[in-house]
């Protein structure tokens, strides 16, 4: 086994042996090839059921990059403009003088925070109004309540994790006329061969769902009342590796090369307050792209890595990262509400640099005879879907129509809002009666 990959495997084995992790599935892709894919431990420790590579996991916030890719697909088709105010797609917001753009939703600069991530009065309003979103409200109720809440800050001024990508999922539904799940199945997951990526666990496959060990508890996805583009997907390690492979292949066979380049670029403007993103345990040294964190620098970050490396983990214990400069991607699927991410950092730190060199030395897929030129490999990019073969050679790319993607980000009355107070001052929008606690 490749030394760096072996270290990752040994880490997971040690976590299982110490009963800190019931089980996991780990996959690694390099230069378009799957070079490691293995299951560890138990899918259901209480019943003694071993983990398998086709086990299902709640990927939580790892849903966000997939929903973001779906939004960019609509941008390429000219149906969505990231610079538009969200009221152009969600009428409930149309009457507000200050509106985030769709881009603000995707990069977490909209001013709509998850309520449990702060203790300000505005955070409390969001916590009371929407709860955890998908299990408490329908999509229409979710939009209606958010539309009547004050913004935490001027759109674009501050990075703060929030409900933006859930709203993007509902915008997608409004544009395509189907559920987000159906659109992802037909237009994103289907072409990529991600047949096990769905909202909730399908009937007949519940035995494949990995169970966390007590006292860890996962949300009951069966009671979700709308398709949460921010946190609602269930997937497998193999499926998510296909998504990561698409990003590393510059979008093939799903998105145009320039679209993926844009997705993986830091979208935070100079001067944006990123203090919440820089906190320990979050993503120090990172900016934010379209639905994912983007590494800004090599130094000043807790672990080695490459500028341009992208990631965004899930709250249930799943994580992934991709290093385009090394053409390397890693997916780790586990179910534990304990924070696996800090413990995996030591091994993760060595993987991008060490694994790449070891892969090039030892793995047959990466060897090249002296004096020969590497040919584009077609294998991993070929998927049969709806009677068609979805493949374009890596040297040939569809160019995205970028005119709408790069349209102006003008926001209604932003200047007026800024002059009314500091960028981080909550907007003066009266809270609705149902959102105010009684004494």
UniProtKB/TrEMBL annotation:
Residues 9-353 form the Beta-lactamase-related domain. This is CubicO group peptidase (Beta-lactamase class C family). InterPro entries: Beta-lactam-related, Beta-lactam/transpept-like, Diverse_Enzym_Activities. PANTHER family: BETA-LACTAMASE FAMILY PROTEIN (AFU_ORTHOLOGUE AFUA_5G07500) (PTHR43283:SF3), BETA-LACTAMASE-RELATED (PTHR43283). Gene3D superfamilies: DD-peptidase/beta-lactamase superfamily. Residues 366-390 are annotated as: Disordered. Pfam families: Beta-lactamase (PF00144). It comes from the Bacteria.
């Amino acid at each position: 086994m490749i030394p760096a990959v072996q270290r990752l495997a040994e880490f997971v084995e040690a976590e299982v042996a110490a009963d800190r992790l019931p089980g996991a599935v780990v996959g690694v892709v390099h230069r378009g090839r799957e070079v490691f894919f293995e299951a560890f431990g138990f899918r259901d420790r209480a019943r003694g059921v071993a983990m398998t590579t086709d086990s299902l996991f709640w990927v939580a916030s790892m849903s966000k990059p997939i929903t973001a890719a779906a939004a960019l697909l609509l941008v390429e088709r000219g149906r969505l403009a990231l610079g538009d105010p969200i009221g152009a797609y969600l009428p409930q917001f149309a009457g507000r003088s200050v509106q985030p753009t769709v881009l603000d939703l995707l990069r977490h600069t909209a001013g709509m925070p998850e309520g449990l991530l702060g203790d300000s009065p505005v955070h409390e309003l969001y916590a009371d109004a929407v709860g955890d979103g998908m299990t408490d409200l329908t999509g229409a109720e979710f939009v209606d309540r958010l539309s009547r809440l004050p913004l935490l800050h001027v759109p674009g001024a501050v990075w703060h994790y929030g409900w933006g990508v859930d709203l993007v999922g509902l915008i997608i539904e409004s544009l395509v006329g189907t559920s987000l799940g159906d659109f992802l199945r037909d237009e994103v997951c289907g072409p990529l061969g991600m047949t096990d990526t769905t909202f909730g666990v399908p009937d007949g496959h519940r035995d494949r769902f990995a169970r966390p060990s007590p006292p860890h508890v996962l949300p009951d996805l069966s009671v979700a009342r709308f398709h949460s583009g921010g946190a609602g997907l269930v997937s497998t390690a193999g499926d998510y590796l296909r998504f990561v492979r698409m990003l590393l292949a510059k979008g093939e066979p799903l998105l145009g090369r320039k679209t993926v380049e844009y997705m993986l670029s830091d979208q935070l403007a100079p001067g944006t307050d990123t203090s919440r993103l820089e906190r320990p345990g979050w993503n120090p040294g990172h900016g934010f792209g379209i639905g994912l964190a983007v590494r800004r620098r090599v130094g000043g970050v807790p672990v080695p890595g490459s500028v341009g490396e992208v990631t965004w983990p899930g709250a249930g214990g799943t994580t992934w990262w991709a290093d385009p400069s090394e053409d390397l991607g890693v997916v780790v699927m586990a179910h534990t509400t304990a924070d696996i991410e800090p413990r995996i950092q030591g091994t993760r730190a060595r993987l991008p640099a060490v694994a790449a060199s070891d892969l090039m030395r030892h793995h047959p897929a990466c060897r090249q005879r002296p004096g020969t030129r590497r040919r584009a490999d077609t294998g991993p990019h070929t998927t049969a879907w709806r009677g068609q073969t979805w493949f374009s050679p890596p040297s040939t790319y569809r160019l995205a129509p970028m005119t709408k993607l790069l349209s102006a980000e003008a926001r209604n009355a932003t200047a007026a809002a800024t002059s009314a107070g500091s960028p981080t001052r909550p907007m003066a929008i009266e809270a609705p009666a149902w959102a105010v606690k009684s004494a």
